[in-house]
Amino acid sequence: MNPIYFQLRALFQADEPHYFKLQQLSDQWLCTPKQTKRRLNMLQEQGSLHYIPGKGRGNPSKIVFTHSLKDDLDQILQQLLATNDISGILNLLDFGFPTHFFDRYYEKIQSLFGLQENASAEIKLPVIIHRPLTTIDPIKAAVYRESFILKQLGDTLVTINERKLAPAIAHHWSIENNACTWRFFLRKGVKFHHGKTLTSQDVAYTITRCMQKGANTFTQLKNIQQIELISDYEIVFHLEHSEPFFGHLLANHSCIILPEDIPFDEKKFISCGPFKLNHYGTTTVSLKAFDHYYGFRALIDEIEFFIDFTDSSKLTDYEQVQTNNIGVEFLIFNQKRDTVVNDLHFREALYHLLDNQQLLKDLGADLGSPASRYFPKESALLHKSLTKAKAALKKSTYNGETLHLGYLPMFQKAIHQSEWLQKRAEKIGISFKRIPFTFNKEFFTSSMEKNMDMVMIGDIPMSDDELSFLDFCTNGTLLLQRFLSTENQNHLQEKVTHFKFEQDTEKRWTLYQEIDRWLIDNYFLIYIIHPHKQNLVHTMLHNNPMNVAGYYDFKNVWEIPTKKK
């Protein structure tokens, strides 16, 4: 399929001649007018159209397509279906052609997205996701979907089950010297995807990588003083201070064990998990079951993630499944910019302005439930009002300047919430300019700190409650660490250190509440809602358990009926 041609056809869908300015098409193709002319001449040589350049400066050019749009789409769809090219079909659908052109093909299209079983009885499961992946480098991944995929590709030393450590790569461990020494005993015969046997050298390499500056876990693992290799299957971590919570940190997805014998390359991801990376492209990512996994071999042979399927309503093998109270959405202020958001009274005004009960009333209760704390079980209804917002604003130093409000444009809910906040702010005289950003471009760059005064965003817990909140507070990729002033970062680090070094579980929970309360009382962030999430789920997965974030752990999917012969 020629994407250049079909992008042009999506712009000019009628079959009659089209007149246009060269710059118009250059903007659409994101190229120079000179490159646009070359593309049009190339398409003319291929027999796709007739191109008649405009005579004289500023006069319109003319395009006459050789075939009707219906004939073009029929031809390309038949080619794509004949080769089972799902990626090509997704790209074609994404151009935004009217859906009636596809009606006669939808039965065949949807069959490609059904559970597939080939002549070798291999089970292939297509999974539809709605944005490209950011990164699957464990020490950089900071978004839930990427964390979830990493957990399919690799394993950590230990896992967490009901707030307690459980075996994974390590079958046993001992805590010595008042929790200053942690000794782990590794399983023998664990294989990496490229065939190498896992040893303590790989564990040391992985954790050292997690300790480097810029890694998600840099702050969390600062207490490691020395890593000692006793043998190929015994490794000891010596800590500077007693840390009863240390084992939990090693269950973080960032600590997925990587081989030390080859340089890390996320496009050729190698670990020791139940699935191995088969393909990592811009529109598709596929995982294949790893036959030599040390645990149970997965029932599903291949999982193929298809990105940005724009019209899923006609896929009869899929259903929308709602999961409630998935994480938390919040407004966070950027203290790195010298603006009025550093004024406590201004942030207090925004706190009262952002009335989540009114937001849900205006935009729909199906968005989620009101949030006042990080965890849904801790949240309570709060009484806010524009009157309180005006009173706090009057005490602030705000002087009518326009502030930049960041939001994620790929989610309709995020667009509507940012528009709602902008309009509500206007009622008390605050001016916002809404600035879109994406995870794939701006989020992982310094442009967030440089250009945003505040951002509406969310956080989905990646594991158990304690580790999730710790990651929320200390992960250097997330906005809390990036937006706090240096002074407040230091205050937060002190509080987090007390949390990590506390042995008693109930006391740690009290310390969590103190940290969360400190963030709330200083209006460093404002919790908005615990969102309800819609997932497009293959009907074959319905008898399998879904995790708290609305995802299926594919290595533990065992109830999948195969197609009848």
UniProtKB/TrEMBL annotation:
Protein localization: Cell membrane
Any one GO BP annotation for this protein: peptide transport
Entry protein name: ABC transporter substrate-binding protein
Pfam name, any one: SBP_bac_5
Transcriptional regulator SgrR N-terminal HTH domain: residues covered: 5-94
Gene Ontology cellular component list: plasma membrane
Keyword DNA-binding on entry: yes
Magnesium listed as a keyword: no
GO molecular function: DNA binding; peptide transmembrane transporter activity
Membrane topology, from the record: Lipid-anchor
Primary subcellular site in the record, as a coarse category: membrane
Domain Solute-binding protein family: 164-306, 317-473
Keywords linked to the UniProt accession: DNA-binding
